[in-house]
Amino acid sequence: MKKRIALVTGGFTGESVISLKSAAVVEKHLDQERYEVFKILIYPGNWYHETKSGEKIKVDLNDFSIVLDNQKITFDGVFNILHGSPGEDGKLAGYFDMLKIPYTTCDAMTSAITMNKGYTKAIVHDIPELFVARSFHLFKNTEERRKEILHDLRLPLFVKPNNGGSSIGMTKVKDPSELEEALARAFAEDAQVLVEEFVSGREFSIGIYCAKGITTVLPATEIVSSKEFFDFEAKYSPGIAEEITPGRMSEEEVSRVKRICEKIYLKLNCKGAVRVDYFLENETGKFYFIEINTVPGQTETSLISQQVRAIGMDVKDFYTNLIEEMFD
């Protein structure tokens, strides 16, 4: 008998557009012989399953079920591809935990912590061979804090929403006069903001996942952007950034990155597939942690998809591994 899988997508943030694209790809590649898949769209106050005819079937939030053809449908598990809130920040995970429904992504605690860039850095900073850029974690945009930032940190700076994704609301500040506006832009997206010193280096993104009890670090993708940094446009517009998989690293760098990323995954108690973004500093080759994404994009050209194919694995088998892991 096929397992019933709810594929959750949508969301409460600007990342919902990317989530829908990811869900379309996941749905296309899931093993239809093993799973009966129901796409569930989640928006504020509006959770529903859309039938092939376009009818929207409301989700009963008491037990996360739907009624189709007078039959109540419950789910064996959830494939979570909802970027941002509530799919990536722990809210959905907590809800599913209460209902005892397994899901493919990190638990509520890990999801909530890793959504907060500042808190995540505080946890991983003492991992051997891992470095973090000097930074300020802000809760208010005040003149006093701006003076402290400019006194203690070297320009240029990256200003970003602390709990955001897809580089929305992110600014590179090269002149002190630009800081106030950059902070205002970031605070418009989030109540917390992270200000970091710029690290001059090669940028990479790498997937890590666990299946059958084995943690696998995928080949890293090197990001060569024609823009100043890998922003929303560079991430989702063709031709803006070159993505090289596997990235250009020496054997020593590949080995070191693998060691570090395995430790990040284990220390944060990750589950399913995550993606770690990092720099290798130009002068020293040091590994600088940027952030971790616990619900990484799964479009046809997404970094995770590229990396899975780079090890000779079919994306369908990769998704099967993620689903089966949540039942073990």
TrEMBL record:
Cofactor note as given: Binds 2 magnesium or manganese ions per subunit.
GO biological process, one term: regulation of cell shape
Entry keyword Nucleotide-binding: yes
Residues reported to bind Mg(2+) 2: E291, N293
One of the record's GO cellular component terms: cytoplasm
Domain ATP-grasp: 117-324
Record's protein name: D-alanine--D-alanine ligase
Organism: Belliella baltica (strain DSM 15883 / CIP 108006 / LMG 21964 / BA134)
